Amino acid sequence: MQAHKKPKNITQYDELEELLENESLETVETFAEGYHQDSSDNYCRYIMALQHIANRELFRENPRYEKADFRDYLRDRWNMTETTLHHAHQAFVKFPEAARLLGSGPIIEAIKQCAPAQLNTAVERMVTAETQTRQGLTPPKKREILKQHARPMPRIPKTPKIPDPPKPKTTPKIKELRNWKREYYQAERERKDLLRDYKEIIVQNAKLKAALLKARAAAQEYKTALERWAE
User: Fold this and answer.
1) Which of 11, 107, 150, 209 is most buried as measured by Cβ atoms within 10 A of its Cβ?
2) How many CA atoms lie within 13 A of 198 on its CB side?
3) DSSP codes, 104-134
């Protein structure tokens, strides 16, 4: 395909696929530039050409984008987001006639805002307003149609209000004040008594150990004496 010539009557993506089947990135980019910001038909071809680059990953032929994502190429090369390309391509694929009549803008708005079950009806009403009314599809009329067929807003459940705990009518009175000083001295006295008992137990234990050692020594001497007597 010669890049400087604009083929006529290409309105379907399959036709563009066949035309650009074996073309390089440079050729497809030149093709897209030739239709960029022109009539609705040409803008359709421009969008389909970019979609072709995405589907075939032709952007990787450019060393600059060899390891990049398509969204980087699309933003850098065409100043467009993937979401915009997706919605525009969807508009021309699902509603080709309406997109050429109204332009892709109103169709893209309908795709973004309308409930899926209401999308076809919204587009049909916009086409009817454009073709069967004197002023055509005015911005207020378009907003009215989109609003009537918009997705329902999700209901956010209200957080139940937790009631504050009831406040006591009067401050409870302290029936009896504890004598902390008296209890402290009593506990200290008990601690000293326990410490004295503990020390006495240690001394007694030491005496018992000494007595046990003496008893073992005496037993050993008695055993030795018996052994000598037996000889």
Assistant:
1) 107
2) 6
3) HHHHHHHHHHB-GGGHHHHHHHHHHHHHHSS
> CA-to-CA distance for 200 and 15, rounded, in angstroms?
110
Reduced to 3 states, what is the DSSP secondary structure of residue 147?
A: helix
Q: What is the mean pLDDT of residues 106-122?
A: 92
Distance between CA atoms of residues 201 and 194, nearest Å? 10
Beta bridge partners of 114: 150
Give the chain's radius of gyration (CA, Å): 48
Global pTM value: 0.52
92 in Cβ contact with 47 (< 8 Å) = yes
Calculate the alpha carbon distances from 189 to 32, 33, 132, 200, 204 in Å: 100, 101, 107, 17, 23
Phi, psi of 148 (to 5 degrees): -70, -25
Reported as a single tens digit per residue, the pLDDT across 143-182 is 999 999 998 877 777 777 777 777 766 665 555 556 677 7
